[in-house]
Design a protein that fits this description.
By secondary structure, the chain is an alpha+beta fold. It has two domains: 178 residues, Fructose-1,6-Bisphosphatase, Chain A, domain 1, CATH 3.30.540.10; 129 residues, D-Maltodextrin-Binding Protein, domain 2. The protein is built from seven helices and 17 strands. The strands form four sheets. Strands 4-3-5-6-7-8-9-10 form an eight-stranded mixed β-sheet, sandwiched between helices. A five-stranded mixed β-sheet has the order 12-11-13-17-15, with helices on both faces. Helix 2 runs antiparallel to helix 3 and helix 4 packs across helix 7. The chain starts with a helix and ends with a helix. 48% of the residues are buried.
């Protein structure tokens, strides 16, 4: 089934509004164009080169960061989106005055990996028009595109589960991959940047100690670490075969409250995880219950297979 037909069915079944579907179609068109730019990087333009500017969080911008946001803004401007909330902008960007949805995006997640040919992507969240800052529970839809060996999409609405799509380059259209996504409750894989282990807070350190003891430890099994360093790449793997992703807060200056942005990174990932039968937390509670206090608020993000998440949450309670 094509993404277009999938969206038509969601609209007809009342699981999505006209403006939500319109925004998703616009994002899909933008993603196809971004994927084309990623493929051309190093051939027709050095899109991975830093351009000297910084985004709203002070991160160095690359040419492709800017171009990706321009494409997303352009296509959303003709959809039912009232505002765009972007990692690259300090403030909300007005789009359609009569639009009924707000779209939050990380236009190019993992852009530091552009020059080394690692999968990068676009993360998005669709919210009802109204307050710019809303908890993740309010999301109407969320998902992310990946640009790598394949161009893929995982998408979920407020009702129903997650569905994966892959771009057919010959047709220029996203097609469904299998049935609804379900993250297994148990796993033997985890993703975390172990280089910061000496800075972790006690709950994460305690869980990792148990993991590293393997079959002789409290969890009675062996584990494998898988860490790409690109949120969308690690997340795609987990949605395909299970696992746990951890980007916790730690005791480094400025990292106590985590590093991932709540509105356009953690919330959409948590939305997808819950609809795939997994859990997403900041350690103390559900990511989706956090009331944002700023557009670029950062939080810890831990999500994935339920058995390990329950262990981690129990450790955070003590």
């Amino acid at each position: 089934m094509s993404l277009s037909l999938f969206l038509d069915e969601a609209l007809g079944a009342g699981r999505a509004s006209d403006d939500t579907v319109s925004a998703l179609r616009a994002l899909a068109v933008a993603a196809i164009e971004i994927a084309g730019l990623v493929q051309r990087n190093g051939i027709s333009a050095d899109l991975g080169e830093e351009i000297g500017g910084t985004n709203s969080d002070g991160d160095s911008q690359k040419a492709l960061d800017v171009r990706a946001e321009e494409l997303i803004t352009h296509h959303l401007s003709t959809s039912g989106a009232a505002f765009l909330l972007s990692e690259e902008q300090d403030d909300p960007v007005p789009l359609a005055g009569d639009g009924s949805v707000i779209v939050a995006v990380d236009p190019l997640d993992g852009s530091s990996n552009i020059s080394v040919n690692v999968t990068i992507g676009t993360i998005f969240s669709i919210l009802p028009a109204g307050p710019m800052l809303q908890p993740g529970r309010n999301q109407l839809a969320a998902g992310f595109f990946t640009y790598g060996p394949q161009t893929t999409l995982i998408l979920a609405f407020a009702e129903g589960g997650c569905q994966c799509f892959v771009l057919d380059p010959d047709q220029g259209e996203f097609l469904t991959m299998g049935g609804p996504v379900s993250i297994p409750e148990q796993t033997s894989e985890f993703a975390i940047n172990a280089a910061y282990s000496n800075h972790w807070f006690p709950p994460v350190r305690a869980w990792m100690d148990g993991v590293l003891e393997g079959k002789s430890g409290p969890y009675k099994q062996s584990y494998r670490m898988r860490w790409v360093g690109s949120l969308v790449a690690d997340a795609w793997r987990i949605f395909q075969r299970g696992g746990v992703f951890l980007y916790p807060g730690d005791d480094r200056p400025g990292n106590g409250q985590g590093r991932l942005r709540l509105v356009y990174e953690a919330s959409p990932m948590a939305f997808l995880a819950e609809r795939a039968g997994a859990i997403a937390t900041d350690g103390s509670g559900s990511i989706l219950d956090i009331e944002p206090d700023s557009l670029h608020q950062r939080v810890p993000l831990i999500f994935g297979s339920a058995v390990e998440l329950r262990r981690l949450m129990e450790l955070h309670r003590h």
